[in-house]
Automatic annotation (TrEMBL):
Stored InterPro entries: PTS_IIB_sorbose-sp (IPR004720), PTS_IIB_sorbose-sp_sf (IPR036667)
GO cellular component terms, A-Z: cytoplasm
Domain of life: Bacteria
Main location: cytoplasm
Protein name: PTS mannose/fructose/sorbose transporter subunit IIB
Pfam families: PTSIIB_sorb
Keyword set includes Cell wall biogenesis/degradation: no
Cell location: Cytoplasm
Organism: Lacrimispora amygdalina
Record-annotated PTS EIIB type-4 domain positions: 1-163
Length: 163
């Protein structure tokens, strides 16, 4: 069975040096992107696949297919970096059976009613509810955009959000 060595939430998905650094640090040999919109857009999917680090297998699945494949042990073997664009996707796949123990929030872009909590990471009330639910289920949540950053725990981020 595949081992999820890093579960990262980043709205940018696969992007340049940052992704290369995370792949190297986690020693992942596969990236599984879980995104309904990307899985349905062949043109954009090709662009993302071309931007993946050399020698790393990349697969893109819808939320439903990711849950189905995981539960049927179809992720194969190897060290997987699970990459999701948002917390709604994370919550859905977690509730569907992909029970990760740790989540790294690395990039959630800005929009109305969102609050900057750490570098380029913004949250809204719905995100906070999902994070609290995941934390209550026993998931360790950190915020870290690049490997060189000191990870911020969810408790610290929640204080920033509530101020």
């Amino acid at each position: 069975m595949a081992e999820i060595v890093l579960c990262r939430i980043d709205s940018r998905l696969i992007h340049g040096q940052v992704m290369t650094k995370w792949v190297n640090q986690s020693k992942a040999n596969r990236i599984v992107v879980v995104s309904d919109s990307l899985a349905a857009d062949e043109f954009m999917l090709e662009i993302y696949l071309m931007s993946a680090p050399a020698g790393v297998k990349v697969e893109c699945l819808s939320r439903a297919d990711a849950v189905k494949n995981w539960n049927e042990d179809q992720f194969g073997s190897g060290r997987v970096l699970l990459l999701l664009p948002d917390l709604a996707s994370m919550k859905e796949v977690y509730d569907g059976g992909i029970k990760v123990t740790d989540i790294q929030v690395g990039g959630l872009g800005g929009a109305p009613n969102r609050k900057v909590v750490f570098q380029n990471i913004t949250l809204d009330d719905e995100d906070v509810e999902k994070l609290i639910s995941l934390q209550e289920a026993g998931v360790k949540i950190i915020f870290q955009t690049i490997p060189e950053d000191v990870p911020q725990d969810f408790h610290t981020i929640l204080k920033k959000y509530n101020n």
